[in-house]
Structures are given as C-alpha cells and as structure tokens.
Amino acid sequence: MIKKHRHLDLQFMMMLHPNLLVMQPMKKTPKYIWVPRLASESILKKTSRDDESLRRWKEQLLGSVDAAQVEEVQEPDVKILSLTIVSPDRPDIVLEIPNTGNPKAPWFTLKEGSKYNLKFSVKVSNDIVCGLKYTNHVWKKGLKVDNSKEMLGTFSPQPEPYTHVMPEEVTPSGFLARGNYTAKTKFVDDDNKCYLELNYTFDIQKDWAK
C-alpha cells in the first residue's frame, strides 16, 4: 500500500513514521512514501496530547486503548482463545486451546461428507498486530493431503476478543477418506512472528463423535 500525504508537513510525517522515504521527482511537489505499517501506540504517545485532531486520530486507530497510559514500547500480544467447528448437522464443537503442549489425540472427529466452518476467537493486547494469518497443513499416513492459508486481517488492541469465521468446507467421504489425520496449525503476522503453533490429530468417521 502506498499513500500520499498532501496536508501534513515533512517534519510531522517524519516524527510519526521513522521509515518515511522522501522522493523528489522532476516536479516541485515532493511525494511522501512510507513502508506500509499502522502507527503503533509507542509512536502515537510521542505526538502532542493537546492537539484535538491528533487525539481523535489516536482514538480511531487504537479504539478503547488509552495511548496516554503507554509508558514504553510493547509488542503486540495475540492469544488464540478457542477454535470452534460450526456445522449445520450438529451443535457447535468448541475446542479450548491448551495452555501448554499440544492437544491430546485425537482432538476432534469430523463426519465424512459434511459441511463445516472453523471459527476463531482471538484476543489482541498492547499494540496493533498487522497481517495476522492462519496456516494449516494436513497429512494422512505421511502424505500431505491439504495445505490452506487464510488472511485474518489487521487488529487493534481491545478488551473483547475478535471472532473470525473461515469459508465453508466439506469433509471428504468414502472408505479412503475415513481414518486418522495429522495436522499443524500456525498463526503468524506480517513479521513472521508466530503466536501459536499446534500439532494435533483428528479423525474423519462415518458419523460425528458421541
């Protein structure tokens, strides 16, 4: 993403965006281009607290977070609270994320040939997280059978968890599809920082688990 700033002077832009690059073309009007990154709380804290327009801008970016309370640079803290399997064939299956280690095997059972969605509950604290992504790799008997990636988005910190619903999928069916699967799930941001990595197993059977 490239943005042009026509109404802010260069000194103010450099204060807000240390990564700002100034390019002087043939025309007299300079163009200001910066690396695509949302302003963080630590940067916003440096701006004047007495400026009403800046105060409104801070609130728009940070939501309910009070930038005046930020005393030092803090990294975003992202916690994946739960994973829910949503299917029209049965009540929701809520899977709590283990505090330590990986889920016990098998973590869940899916019915063959059934439609379902995955729903995530995500809590973001401290600072904005940019480009949060979900990746999932699935193997059966050592052979990779699925590889998926979903961009969840950019989130500002707030007290309430965010909810993200994945596109609908259909489980495979038939004798060859039934059995045990191994999977690895990761949540990473644009800087490739990993907030959660899970290794687990699940089953596909003729019917849902009782």
From TrEMBL:
SUPFAM superfamilies: E set domains. This is Putative rho protein GDP-dissociation inhibitor, Immunoglobulin E-set. GO terms for biological process: Rho protein signal transduction. It comes from the Eukaryota. Belongs to the Rho GDI family. Its main location: cytoplasm. It is found in: Cytoplasm. GO terms for molecular function: Rho GDP-dissociation inhibitor activity. The lineage of its organism: Eukaryota, Viridiplantae, Streptophyta, Embryophyta, Tracheophyta. InterPro entries: Ig_E-set, Rho_GDI, RhoGDI_dom_sf. Keywords: Cytoplasm. The keyword Cell division does not apply. One of its GO terms (cellular component) is cytosol.
